[in-house]
Amino acid sequence: MKKAKAHFPSIPVIAYEGVNSTNALAFRHYNPDEVVDGKTLSAHLRFSIAYWHAFRGTGADPFGPGTIQRPWEAGKDAVSIAKVRMDAAFEFFQKIRAPFYCFHDRDIAPEGKTLAESNKHLDAVVAHAKQLQKATGVKLLWGTANLFSNRRYMCGAATNPDAHVFAYAAAQVKKALEVTQELGGENYVFWGGREGYETLLNTNLKREQDHLARFLHLAVDYAKEIGFKGQFLIEPKPKEPTKHQYDFDVATGIAFLRTYGLEKHFKFNIETNHATLAGHTFQHEIEVAASQGMLGSIDANAGDELLGWDTDQFNTNVKELTLAMTSILRAGGLGTGGFNFDAKLRRPSIDPEDLFHAHIGGMDAYALAFKVARRILADGKFAAFVADRYASYDSGFGRDIETGKANFKSLEKLVLTKLGEPTPRSGKQEFLENVLNAYLHG
Ligand code: XUL
Ligand code: CO
Asked: What one-character-per-residue DSSP string does 117-160 give?
C-alpha cells in the first residue's frame, strides 16, 4: 500500500508526558504502554473513536448548517472522498493512540440510489478499511447500521408500521453484520434510532414491540448462520429522536429481552448521556446491567446539566467517571467491549487540532478515573462499609430470609417473641462522600 499523505501534518503521535506536563498535545494520565496487572492500559481501557462524530460531524444544529470544514472532504466522487476521509481517520486513530474505532454503515460509505448500490459502495470502502486496519493494527470495536437518518425510516425501522420498511431495514442489517464480520468487529450494536413513537393515536405499541423482538431474533439467527461471533449489544436511550423510545433504559431493556427470549444473546452498550436523559446516573445504569451479567460496552460522553437533550460532550468529570469505573471494575471489566467516545466537538470547535484536545481530555479523564477506582477497590473501605451494612443477612434469621427458609409466619413469631423493635443505624452518606473526595483530591 502506498504511503498516504498526512492529513494532520503539524500534529505528532500523542505522547504520555505525566502530570507535570504543560504540553496541551500530550497525555498527563493515559500512558497506553503502562502495564497494570500484566496488561497495558491500552488493553484495559480499549478506547475507541466514533466515526460518525469524529469524521462525519459538521457542527450542524437545528439553527444552522455545519461549521466544521475538513480539507480532506474533496474528491471526484462520494466513494473516493469516503476513502480519503478514512485515510485521515486512521491517521487520527494512530496519532491519538486509540486501538479501536466504531461506525455505522452509512458513516463510512455513501448511501446509493438503491440498496444494491449502497452495498456496492460499502464493499468498496470496507475493502479500504480492511487494508488500513492491517497496516495500522487499529481494530473494529463494533459496527452498526444507521436505521434512522434516511426518510424511509421516519416512523422507525423494525417498528415501522409498513412491513416494506421492516424488510429494507432487515436487508440493511444483514449487510452491516456481514461487513462487521469481515472487519473482525468484536461487537455489534443495536441503538433503537427511531424505534419508539410520538403519539398513540397512530400507534399499535404491542405490535411494534413484537416486531422489534422479531427483528432482533432474525439478527441472532443470521449471525449464527454466518458464524459471526461478536457480542450483540443493545444501547438504551429514553427519548430523542422519538418522544418514547422503546429501549428506555437498561432495566427496560432487560425486561424486553427476557419477555421475548432474547436475553442470552445481548448485553448492553451504556451511554452516559442516555443514562442521564433517563433520569439515572451513569453508574446506576452500569450497576443494573452488571447485576444481571449484561454489562457489555460504554459509549463515553456526557450531557449538560442545564440542557435536556443529548449533547454528546466529551466527559472530563473525573468524579462521575471514577464512580462508574468502580462499578465496571467490580463487575470484572467490559470483556469484548470498550470505551467508545460517542462525543462530538462543539459547533465553534472547528480546528482539526480540537479533535485531539477533545479526545486527549476524555482519555486522560478515563485513565485517571481507572487509577483512582483501582485504589478505592484495593483499599476496600466502601466494600467493607457495605458488607457490614448488610451483615445481618449473613447468619441466623437474615440468612434464612435470603435462602428462602423464612416465611411471614416464622418472621412474625421472631419479632413477637425475640427481636422486638429494630435499632436504626446511620447510612453515613456524608461521611462516605468525604472519604470519596479524599481519593479524588488528596
Ligand atoms: C445516538 C447514539 C448512536 C449510537 C449508535 O444517540 O448514541 O450514535 O451510539 O447508533
Ligand atoms: Co451512542
From this structure: HHHHHHHHHHHHHHHHHHHH--EEEEEE---SSSGGGTT-STT-
Is-contact 347 67, C-beta < 8 A? yes
Query: H-helix or E-strand containing 430?
Result: helix 429-441
Would you call 188 helix, strand, or coil by DSSP?
Answer: strand
Start-to-end C-alpha separation, the chain: 51
Query: In sequence order, which residues have a C-beta less than 8 Å from that of residue 377 and are 6 or more positions away?
Result: 326, 329, 330, 383
Cell of 294: 449484561
How far apart CA 288 and CA 249 sit, in angstroms, is 10
User: In whole angstroms, how large is the CA radius of gyration of the chain?
Assistant: 24
Ligand nearest to the CA of 52: 1
Active-site annotation holder among 104, 121, 211, 280: 104
Taking residue 440's Cβ as centre, other Cβ atoms within 10 Å add up to 13
**Span 184-202, pLDDT tens digits:** 999 999 999 999 999 999 9
Q: Is the CB of 51 under 6 A from ligand 1?
A: no
From CA 236, how far away is CA 284, in angstroms rounded? 13
Instruction: Indicate if ligand 1 lies below 6 Å from the C-beta of 128.
Output: no
The predicted pLDDT at position 5 comes to: 82
Beta partners for 27? 16
- Ligand positioned closest to the Cα atom of 54: 1
Give pLDDT, residue 67: 98
- Give CA–CA dist 321/281, Å, rounded: 11
Residue 387 CA, ligand 2 centroid: distance in Å: 34
